[in-house]
Amino acid sequence: MGDCGDLHGSCLCGGIRYRAALPVFHASHCYCSMCQKQHGAAAGSYANVASAGLVIEQGAQLVTEYASSDDGRRDFCRVCGSTLFWRSTASPDRIAIALGTLEPEYSGPVERELFVENKPAWLPCG
């Protein structure tokens, strides 16, 4: 999951590169309608880490924030649109990193599923 005790990742166009300090507090699949819309997928999949350990190594000027609700902020690349981070205004000490942006891919467990009542019927069984 990265060297030097860090996770590493980037957006689709490579304009933004980041690292985040371990540990991962938990990883989750969120099936809320906002995550589904933002990701264009069944869920938003995230690793929850300490926000103090997140460093944008390249392309900080490309990170764009969208206030999707009073409680949530979503960060994405303004060039390619890649979803990068989700933050709760109630928990500024944590940040959720989109698992699909990690390099190498995340190898830890996903312990939580959120808003399972919104899990799409078209997902495969099992």
UniProtKB/TrEMBL annotation:
InterPro entries: CENP-V/GFA, Mss4-like_sf
Keyword annotations from UniProtKB, A to Z: Lyase, Metal-binding, Zinc
Chain ranges of the CENP-V/GFA domain: 7-123
Top-level taxon of origin: Bacteria
PANTHER family, alphabetized: CENP-V_GFA DOMAIN-CONTAINING PROTEIN-RELATED, GFA DOMAIN-CONTAINING PROTEIN
Family: Belongs to the Gfa family.
Protein name (database record): GFA family protein
